[in-house]
Amino acid sequence: MNRWQNLWRFIPLFGLMMMLLAGCGDKTISTLQPRGPVARDQLFLMKLSFGIMLLVVVVVFLIYLYVLVRFRKKKGDKDIVPKQVEGSHTLEIIWTVIPIILLLVLAVPTVQYTFKVLEDHRQNKDAIHVKVTAHAFWWQFEYPELGIATAQDLVIPTGKKIAFELTSADVKHSFWVPSLGGKMDTNPGLTNVYYLQADEVDTFKGKCAELCGASHSLMDFKVKSMDPAAFDQWVAKMKTPAVVPADAKAGEQVFKDNCLSCHAVNAQGLGAGPNLNGLASRELIAGILPHNDDSLKKWITNPQSVKPGTQMPAFGPTGAKLQDQQINDVIKYLDSLQLK
């Protein structure tokens, strides 16, 4: 029994550990380290709301402590009932007006920034226009004015507004890049618009922020921000057809016979699966696996073991469609899809 009674002594230790662990994590998925104007505006709103709440708590506790000390029963006091005060118009006006003022202080910038981030920049000639389509469980990115499309890796130039059109090919998802701005839902049959902007060259992590199925937690993507000149070079490389070496020709044919119905391998190609143009230049496979031949083989032969619920069919023992040599040939072909 005494053992349980002494557990309260560990509460300060647990509190200290929680504060220390709260500082752990990847800075590229932290809303508290903004890397663009939208994220900075939203962090300001968080600080403002927290400051107002903290102010209210401090004032209430100070009043509580003052009353507790000022009107406490002192030694020698008789049992008397203090004077009762009812219907004080002054107090009623004070505790009605002050909350209204605090709400206005919070509401005005919140409404202002909300309409600002939802501004439709699709007609802005200086903005980069990107159509985002969410799939279970991957992301498709189209640049209609640039004539290119890709998947999983969203590439953007720094210092420019990125005008997004967001939709879904199946169920409800939510597009979220914590370091650049808040989430926006992607709904089948509907289009949402908003914009983001990156101020620095870096790579940011993006996630799906809406429970969308068995592999919701694995529906990650990356946002690579480049200086405008490097971005233009990337666009040019995306439009340059890959040169397939002679030793990868066999894998190219196997790919065409089995995979081309879903996966495009060109600048503008769209399909049921991700566009694999420049796949060998990406750092991850399926958005989560390190890019190497073992990961490719695991994904091709048994995708359900990586992302349960994915629409990618198995081409290994469970699917019994391709032999080991054919799979190795396809991997060699995919390794040749470099952006040069």
TrEMBL record:
Cofactor note (record): Binds a copper A center.
Q: Which GO terms describe its molecular function?
A: copper ion binding; cytochrome-c oxidase activity; heme binding; oxidoreductase activity
Q: Which GO terms describe its biological process?
A: ATP synthesis coupled electron transport
Which cell locations does it reside in? Cell membrane; Membrane
Does the record bear Electron transport in its keywords? yes
Q: What reactions does this protein catalyze?
A: 4 Fe(II)-[cytochrome c] + O2 + 8 H(+)(in) = 4 Fe(III)-[cytochrome c] + 2 H2O + 4 H(+)(out)
Transmembrane ranges, per UniProt, are 49-69, 90-115
Q: Which domain of life is it from?
A: Bacteria
Q: Which PROSITE patterns match?
A: COX2 (PS00078), COX2_CUA (PS50857), COX2_TM (PS50999), CYTC (PS51007), PROKAR_LIPOPROTEIN (PS51257)
Q: EC number(s) on record?
A: 7.1.1.9
**Domain Cytochrome c, first and last residues per copy:** 246-338
Gene Ontology cellular-component terms for this entry are: plasma membrane
Q: What class of enzyme is it?
A: translocase
Name the PANTHER family for this protein: CYTOCHROME C OXIDASE SUBUNIT 2, CYTOCHROME C OXIDASE, SUBUNIT II
Return the protein name: Cytochrome c oxidase subunit 2
- Species per Swiss-Prot/TrEMBL record: Paenibacillus cremeus
